[in-house]
Each structure stands twice: as C-alpha cells, then as structure tokens.
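Appendix B. Raw example, untouched.
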Amino acid sequence: MENDSSLLNAARMMDQDALGKIFDLYSFPLFNYAARLCGDSVLADHIVGDVFAKLLEQLSAGNGPRTNLRSYLYETTYHLIIDETRFSKRKAPLELAGLLRQEPDSGSPEMEDQLLFKQILHAMQNELTDDQRHVIILRFLEEFSLRETAAIMGKTIDNVKVMQNRAIAALRKSIENKRTRKRVASPRIRKLSKALGI
C-alpha cells in the first residue's frame, strides 16, 4: 500500500494519478464501512461520493489532512452518516451483507463462522449502544487502533477503552447465554471471538 503522505503531497498538487489511487484504495472500504453503519447501500454510495468531494474541496483550498489519510476519510464518513441519521431520524442498523468479508487467503467462510457471526451481529444490534457498536466495528472489523478509533469518533482513548470493554462484556454475556462455543477459521471472526473470550 502506498504511503499516505506521498499520496497526499501529490494530491495537494491535484495530481490526477494520486487522486485516482486514493479513490481506488479507499472507495470500497469506505463504502463497506458506511453500509455497515447506515444499513442502506444507496445512502452509503452517496456518502462515499460526498467524502471524496469534500476531500477534493479541502485539498484544492490548501486544507485537508496532513497525515493519516485513512483516519481522515473514515472520520469524514462517520460525521456524514451521523448528520444524515440525525436529519432523517432513522436508526442506523447493521446488516449482515458485507460484514463477513472473505479473507484474501481463505476460501468461503466456514458455516460455523457464519453462524457465530450471525449471533454476534444479533447481539451487536440488540445489546450495544450506537457508540459501543461503532467501536466494535472500527476496532475489530475495520482494524483501527485505539488512537485512530478515538480520532474518528471524536472521543478520548480512555472513552474508547471503556466503550470497548463494556461492548465486549455485553457481547460475551449474550453469546455465553446462547452457549455458543465454536471453532472459528476466519481471521477477523477469530480476532473478534478472541476479544469476546469465546
């Protein structure tokens, strides 16, 4: 993956190749992220378009990110989704579609992975607050660090740690109540399962 700072430097000069690479690198992951949060693929597509339009506007004005382009794009996406959900007063549900991404070096997800993930997803939808759900998505599905997650959400690292711990405890309790203990093959699901202690 190309260095964000070299891409940003070229993009600030409105280099078409750099802008194209930024779009190619981040459009699909941002779409998946937006779709996870808002549950609407059409809205997610519009939001991603708005994110890149805002990036271009900021860069052409000499503003925008100086470092960590990835966090900047996710933070912008997050804020646009929050603005949209406040405007439309719709709950932002999670959808299973797109959440269980196929790993590059694995075949199709194992049936046990899918069943466990459906149970985790159900618990995320019903047992977590919006902020807790967002922390789990950023930390375990998008694989952001605590610092990046805090920056994206506009929270302190300590707040993110508390939300993460409470979310993991709530998910663990929900899964344990269903007595689900399965062997998991997918690395992302295994990472989330390990955090949940199952």
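End of appendix B.
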